[in-house]
Amino acid sequence: MRRVISIVAAGLGLSLGLTGSSMGATGAASTSTWLQPQSDAAHSNRSLNETTITAGSVLNLSVEYSLGRLPDYGACGRPSEHAAVSTATALYYFDGRRVVAVDLATGQPLWRGTDLGGSDGYRVTDIAVTGSRVIIQGSGGCWSQSDPGVTVRGLDIATGRQVWSAGRSGYNLSMLVSGNTVLSDGEAPGGGVRTVWAYNATTGAQMWTRDGCSRSQYGPAGGLFASNDNIMTTCGAISFSKAGATNWTKPAGWTYLRADPSGTTSPNIYATDPLGRISALGPTGTLRWTSAEKGAVLAAGPSRLLVTCDSGSICALNRTTGARAWKATRTTPAASAILAGDLVYVIPGREPLNATTGQPIPEPDEDFLGPFTFLGSGSVQVAGGRLIHITPRNIDVYAVR
Q1: Which end of the chain is more exposed for a tag (fewer CB within 10 A), N or C?
Q2: CB 319 within 8 A of CB 304
Q3: 386 has which bridge partners?
Q4: How far apart (Å, rounded) are the C-alpha atoms in residues 269 and 274?
Q5: ω into residue 348 within 30 of 0, thus cis?
């Protein structure tokens, strides 16, 4: 039996379709979360503490419910794939007009925020959850070239009520939240100078700014932030503290990629050196190892680092030594991948991989369609024992049956 839930957007005369089955997920509740784009402040692309969806249960996933998102306003106002995050119990997303919170297990609405002016082309590009706040960043004016604007807002996590708002001119590039610090970076109107703004997540008070060669990227353990500027290539890479002070720098040619998540023993910061080789740095910038692999770091796990290798295949490197542990050959280059529990999900792809061996999870027979036909597009996150597939049009939530 399938249930249909209608979420009515007050004042808009719109009904957001939400469909699903009445069966509940099996197994103990997972405490895994996906609290901001790329999971956490380290951009590890790793779902911590996922215990429900495993190599033994993943083939039993099916859609529990779907959330419809509102259509575009012409060329602007389109919901971003990054504008959705999940705690272990709730899902927060931008539906094209407002931020909505639903119960992760059932899809039932918890609250709906106020209309953010979608008719003016307002688009939420980033959402993050920290403490008592849902932090959102977006731009209005349909990406105006003459008068661009960025707004960062703090919403009450229990009600969706706006607590604070910080606006500025210019273009937004990315947002990162680490503890009670929100970093928002962007360019001045017309491009050129890049600036990082730091806000208090609870109150919205501006704490500091950094101009020039700065772009908030990753927040490795120890309270440091790593920064790149891929246009101003003479800048190299920079590490700075939560107070905005420079700790250390790497020369031109070094590029930060991501880092180990908070809580990792002896965490690494991953970067490419001037020759393009994947390298690991310690929190003080000391080189720990350099791999022969040249590519992108897709995800950082407890013992393995997932990277692109050999013209689009995926390799797992030992995070302590940089040595190759396994290789999964692909005919289509991997655009992204996440680690969740003992599984690797690759986009584009069909079958999840065993994180230890790199082998695909075998399907029962050649006619088995499986739950992974969606892995050709969009983004995927795992939280609270659910697999969440996000596209600009829909959000599908899968559970183990």
Answers
A1: N
A2: yes
A3: 383
A4: 16
A5: yes
pLDDT value, residue 144: 56
The more confident residue out of 341 and 25 is 341
Question: Of 250, 240, 246, 247, which is closest to residue 270 (Cα–Cα)?
Answer: 250
Taken in order of first residue, the domains within the chain and their CATH numbers are 23-400 (2.130.10.10)
- To the nearest whole number, what is the mean pLDDT of the chain? 80
Q: Please state the length of the chain.
A: 401
Query: Which CA distances in Å does 345 have to 55, 86, 218, 303, 376?
Result: 11, 17, 22, 17, 11
H/E run at residue 92: strand 90-94
The DSSP secondary structure of 322-388, one letter per residue, reads --EEEEE--SS--SEEEEETTEEEEES-SS-EETTT-PBPPPSSTT---S-GGGGSSEEEEETTEEE
Residues 6+ apart with CB under 8 A from 302: 264, 319
Planar angle of CA 250, 263, 235, nearest 5 degrees: 15
pLDDT at 218: 57
The backbone torsions φ and ψ at residue 152, rounded to the nearest 5 degrees and listed phi first, read: -110, 130
DSSP code for 312 = T
- Could you tell me the two tokens for 140? 């209005």
Distances (CA, A) of 276 to 137, 303, 318: 32, 22, 18
Pair of tokens at residue 34: 């996906």
DSSP state of 80: P
